[in-house]
From TrEMBL:
This is Protein kinase domain-containing protein. The keyword Metal-binding does not apply. It comes from the Eukaryota. One of its GO terms (cellular component) is plasma membrane. The lineage of its organism: Eukaryota, Viridiplantae, Streptophyta, Embryophyta, Tracheophyta. SUPFAM superfamilies: Protein kinase-like (PK-like).
């Protein structure tokens, strides 16, 4: 019986839905193309700039306008956009709002057309505003989000006049507007809107009103904006449509709204003579209410199927996380054009999750595009994870995410571009390695350490990277390191980062994985510490972690470094170019010692990254004694503890690694 009912119910609901559709015409008498919505669309332009077409502001504005059709529609028909850095004078901020009756798709189409028309009508201006028939769009080179703006003002002609006593009608409509004003102002950050109706005297003529503010305004600013409009537009007017950039209102004697959009209090001045009207309204309300209930049930029953279909088509994502990221969503065609259709000539490298390409946007900005492989293990979850994580991180030693792109099965991450690419292109290349003098290598080591301290302890969201390696450390023009690729990162509350966690899916790069993570899926901040220790030894030796010396092929880099350090033969593992240029300095010795501390087999024996930074900054003290590294393949006799190393012949308190 259950199967029978569940299979037939949707058909029954559809039958009832179409049975009552004709009755909807009684209530849905508003048309978004009706003259009541048609208002003057004269653009307002200001801040004229010479040589505008060649300016960065113009390029940012064009990029913003072209991205509008690719935005994810939202149910509130309000959008705030920006292109450019917060501190940049060439940054463009924009805002758009549609009429309440407009569908999400029609809203975006209206905004896109309004934006194109506005930039065409104001070709050399840094500020502009237009109120189209069904939506408004404005942009500026100054911050506009949350800012009250009442200029310019526009008023639409009144298509009808009241047959009531003029003064009494004006008084009643003012009462209705003032009743709706606080309702709209008290709305949340998504919508500030209210609508309602009242009855005039003596013939009980029904009139209707709607008030709306841009949702970014505070309650006080919304109140002030509407009060300003009421005070300047309602005097002596019977019915009015009034508009400014931050708020609008309209009141008419022949405007009926969708009942399901009704959000204000019911009329309080209903007369006693409209019995026939009451009967009609009650009948229509009952029918529409029933239809709405049926429609809601139908939507609930089909929601899961619709979501699954959208997910298969690549259109379903966790919108809340993406919205939190506050990033620019790039158009796929513009990225494909920027990378020359992802040509091999533009490919910078390829990892487990996909390839990275160099691109040049139409306004000249160079970008790095990470194109996730459709066959990789990183799907929607990892993609959304990386977008939401990286967008919230701000540090000198972390790469900056510029935006993302979702198109069908395509998942693209757009980063700032570094001509020097990644660290592995230098330290593992015989010729390029010569460029990296010890001062540069030391600056890279310390920079990566500081970036990890930020991730583990200082950021708003404490993060374990889990895939730190040479190819995930990018170098800018000044050879400052930037930690990249957060696809496998894990986020924790501030007091949870140091706790040990387990995962059934071990992902990362062998050679950089800590023993406990590779063997049992156990990870903590000490997992990143181990990877950092491997990275230190690679930077100092110029060898990959899987390298082994010819004379002892059974030893790999960590084992050989430990054996050489324990036997006092550190020269065997230091890159020869460093010895030739500066000799074996105390600083190199200290870094090798710290690297060995970081790769100790037991996680509890490794220092935290905060302790590592202290070790780098201290000029003279005795470091803790390291034990053998994880995955040590040498003889078991070497388990002995090595003697501590002291710089400048001065000793001080020995650090106890945590």
């Amino acid at each position: 019986m259950t199967g029978c009912c569940s299979s037939s119910r949707p058909h029954n609901l559809i039958f009832f839905f179409f049975l009552f559709v004709p009755f909807l015409g009684l209530a849905q008498q508003v048309d978004i193309n009706d003259p009541v919505w048609n208002i003057p669309s004269q653009p307002s332009c200001s801040s004229l700039q010479s040589n505008f077409a060649n300016s960065q502001f113009s390029k940012n504005l064009n990029s913003l306008v072209s991205s509008i059709p690719t935005l994810i529609p939202n149910p509130y028909n309000f959008y705030d956009l920006a292109v450019g850095r917060n501190s940049d004078q060439e940054r463009v901020e924009a805002m758009a709002l549609c009429n309440r009756a407009l569908t999400r798709v029609d809203c975006l189409n209206c905004i896109a057309q309004a934006a194109v028309n506005l930039t065409t009508s104001c070709p050399q201006h840094r500020e502009a505003y237009v109120r189209a028939t069904r939506c408004m769009f404005r942009y500026s080179d100054k911050p506009i989000l949350g800012k009250l703006e009442t200029n310019p003002v526009s008023e639409a002609p009144n298509p009808s006049s009241a047959t009531e006593d003029r003064n009494e009608f004006i008084r009643l409509q003012s009462e209705l507007l003032n009743r709706l004003r606080p309702v709209a102002a008290a709305g949340g950050s998504k919508r500030k809107y209210a609508q309602g109706n009242g009855l005039g005297t003596p013939s009980n003529t029904t009139f209707f009103a709607a008030v709306q503010c841009t949702p970014d305004l505070s309650e006080k600013d919304c109140n002030d904006c509407l009060s300003y409009g009421f005070g300047n537009a309602t005097k002596g007017r019977v019915g009015i449509r009034w508009f400014c950039p931050s708020c609008i209102f309209q009141i008419e004697s022949n405007l009926i709204f969708y009942p399901n959009e009704y959000e204000s209090d019911p009329p309080t001045n209903a007369g006693s003579g409209g019995d026939e009207l009451k009967i009609i309204l009650a009948t229509v309300g009952s029918v529409v209410g029933f239809v709405l209930i049926v429609a809601c049930l139908y939507i609930l029953l089909t929601r899961n199927k619709r979501k699954e279909k959208q997910r298969r088509e690549g259109k379903y994502v966790e919108e809340n996380k993406i919205k939190d990221a506050q990033l620019l969503q790039f158009d796929f065609d513009s990225i494909r054009l920027a990378t020359n259709d992802f040509s091999c000539d533009n490919q910078l490298g390829e990892g487990g999750f996909g390839a990275v390409y160099k691109g040049v946007l139409d306004f000249g900005e160079e970008i790095a595009v990470k194109r996730l492989s459709m066959r990789s293990g990183q799907g929607d979850n990892e993609f959304i994870n990386e977008v939401s994580l990286v967008a919230k991180l701000q540090h000198r030693n972390l790469v900056r995410l510029l935006g993302f792109c979702l198109y069908g099965q395509e998942r693209l991450l757009i980063y700032e571009f570094f001509k020097n690419t990644s660290l592995d292109h230098f330290i593992f290349d015989t010729n390029r390695r010569m460029i990296l003098e010890w001062e540069t290598r030391y600056r890279i080591i310390v920079g990566v350490a500081r970036g990890l301290v930020y991730l583990h302890e200082d950021s708003r969201f404490n993060i374990i990277h889990r895939d730190l390696k040479a190819s995930n450390v990018l170098l800018d023009d000044a050879m400052i390191p930037k930690i990249a690729d957060f696809g496998m990162a894990k986020l924790f509350d501030t007091d949870q980062t140091s706790q040990t966690r387990f995962t059934e899916r071990v992902a990362g790069t062998y050679g950089y994985m800590a023993p406990e993570y590779a063997m049992s899926g156990e990870f903590s901040v000490k997992t990143d510490v181990y990877s950092f220790g491997v990275l230190i030894l690679e930077i100092i030796t110029g060898k990959r972690n899987n390298w082994s010396p010819e004379e002892e092929s059974s030893l790999f880099l960590l084992s050989y470094a430990w054996k050489s350090w324990r036997e006092g033969k550190v020269l065997n593992i230091v890159d020869q170019s460093l010895i030739n240029t500066g000799g074996l300095s105390n600083e190199i010795m200290k870094c090798i010692h710290i690297g060995l501390l970081c790769v100790q087999e037991k996680a509890d024996s490794r220092p935290t990254m905060a302790s590592v930074v202290v070790m780098f900054n201290a000029s003279s003290f005795t470091l803790p004694r390291p034990s053998q590294p994880g995955f040590y393949t040498g003889d078991r006799v070497s388990r002995g503890i090595a003697q501590p190393v002291t710089w400048n012949s001065v000793t001080s308190t020995e650090l106890d690694p945590r």
